[in-house]
Amino acid sequence: MIKERAYAKINLALEVMDEIDGYHKVNNLMVPISIYDELSFSISDKVYIENDQIKDNICLKAAKLFIEKYNIDKGVCINLTKHIPLMAGLAGGSTDAASVLKGLNKLFDVNASNEELKELAKELGSDVPFFIDTTIALCTNRGEVINPLDIEVPRINVLLIKPQVGLSTKAVYQAYKYNGVSKEENINNIIKALNNNDLELLKKNIFNDLADPALSLSKEFNELYLNIKKAGINVYISGSGPTMYVLNPTNEEIMKVQDLIYEGVFLGLCHTF
Description:
By secondary structure, the protein is an alpha+beta fold. The chain contains 10 helices and 11 strands. Strands 1, 2, 3, 4, 5, 6 and 8 form a 7-stranded mixed β-sheet that branches.
């Protein structure tokens, strides 16, 4: 049996540019965080996920793609334990898919390189290649071109807040309108801040072009976001939402957020790495 941890991510910068051939070009600075799903793999006579309730998970597509690519004549039983919230902007599905490719690579002794796995990962989604290495990177084009950053990421505590509602990435992108404003300076400042462990500079430059369209699609999400901001807390949105995050929250800030949330809201404390 092979076991893998599938780590989530947050976006420190997400610049979305004009749409070309049905896809938006992006500059997407992602950093992995310590919350993870757990996957285990064992050889079987068919390809299936042990957890019936998630049988349509992208993990199945990843497993079938890998087995077909490398002409494997066996199947695999996948056991998936979810800890990353669904439809959250944390790339839970993408990281699971990448972990399937890595896990099956070990299970069947294929010995494919990470670069080979990244090429395969592109067929599963734009975010999936990032999770082959799971290291801070600036992802460009549609998000599938991974440019690793030579940065020793400081450990920053991250408070995750996800309202009960889920958001479709496709719907958020459809609600987005490109304004033509370059965010290159913000991205450079974020990289500088991480290199210098300058949390204040980092907080001043974090941005997400999908924040406004995401907030426009859910009254519940928008109200919770505004209430957290009104409490004097710097809160940011990851990916296409609706997960929000607070960096290095104080005990007072955590207590304020706890007072604002309600049943069904996910609250989790993790860290960057």
